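Issue 218. Parser rejects a valid record. Input:
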Amino acid sequence: MDIMDLASKFIIGKTKRYGAKVAKTTSAPEIPDASPVEIDGPQWSAGFARAEIMPEEIGEKTYYIAGHGSGHVMEGVISPVYIHAVWLDCGTDEGILWLSADIVGMTRIEVNKIRSMILSSPVIKGCRHINFSCTHSHSGIDTLGYWGKPNLVSIPSDGKDKNYMDMLMNKAVEVSEEAYRGRKPGRLYSGRVLVPGGLLAKRDFVDKHEYLSKIRFSPDDGGNEIWILNFGGHPNSLGGGNRMLSGEYPYFMREQIKSECGADVLFGVGAVGGMDAAENDKDDNLNCVKMQGRMLCEYSQKVEDETQLEPKIRLINQPFYMPVDNNVLTLLATRGVMSFKAYPASPDESELGIKMETEMTYLTLGSQKILCLPGENFVSTVYGAYNTAETSATGKGPEINPEPLAVTAGDDSMITFGVTNDMTGYVVPPNDFILNPTQPYLNGYRDRFDKNHYHETNSMGPKSQKVIADTFSKVLKNFS
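Output the parser choked on:
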């Protein structure tokens, strides 16, 4: 037994003892079914704002880069990073806010703090819901804690910076207030365009769902349009050797759209698990990122056959419990690396005996269905096309997997925003989920086809997809 096997055995024992302690000291309150929120009126109204979320003293103060490995200290800046806000209502005194930041992710605990700060603002009135999406840039500041300096067995310390987190939250309030103040009447449209070859998969996906989705607000006064864009590719092409701050392709895409079309853009990733934006220049990572931004800018202007949306918002924001089997992430939580609250779970729910509270938001803007999910869902868990028994890692067929979410919704054009309102890791279908037998969640494992299964190490566990699917089925029943 090598040192990593011993480390894994220690971590498993420690986290199981933690689960037993949670069971003795905490209870898991029942989570009630949420009721729909309905907003309608005579005409759409929207406002937009953005602000820089740049850290101070890069190169003098230690900031850790979120993604590709722990302990990577930021040395400089390639591009600024931003937080964006869109206010949307139906011409009445109630509406919703949608925020997106150039960060890798945010726990629901921090998101709820931001929500409380915004709802306490004396400026904003009638806000019925707030979504907080992340562009999931792997060249941003660590806002989760996973990427601090690691120890000898690669367990990181907390990589968050308190002052940066405070600034980010205050900027969220500022842009929300500005977007609310800038609201104006107009029309809202929805459409999408296929981006052939726009995505690369690190796993064997039958269908990558290569669509760029676009919600477009056109103001009556002829001013700047507001676009809410969605695409299912990781912004991580600067690579593991990068030590510079950047918003990656979303930044370059937004800037080029602003230059060519005058539109203000809020961007969020889709079902991004195991998926990257296409590599257009393997020899120059920065040029690759710029080319990705240019590609998506061009395709965003090719969206045709748009549907004009009726001024009506309906939504359900449903909290639910996610079982936690990942002993490494649990260890990080017990060390205060990330914000986390554990609740006791039955042995059928979790091997560690714990679960966490997370949430999903299902909303319709007119006829356009949108599902906001925590974490990084594999595209097959949302849009289908599972691996067969012959091609799956486990050798088991798709019949053991839950029904894909878009199939449950009866709408392949449903837009999915991942890494929204929480960060709960990868969601992998059960028939393709395998772990290292002696180092589960600590190190990846190669399957029967000699393909690496890294993603499972950053998942909550094999039950994640079923819990999400069951919750979504319940949400749809309560939505109708």
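Fixed in the parser; the record now loads. The chain has a mean pLDDT of 95.
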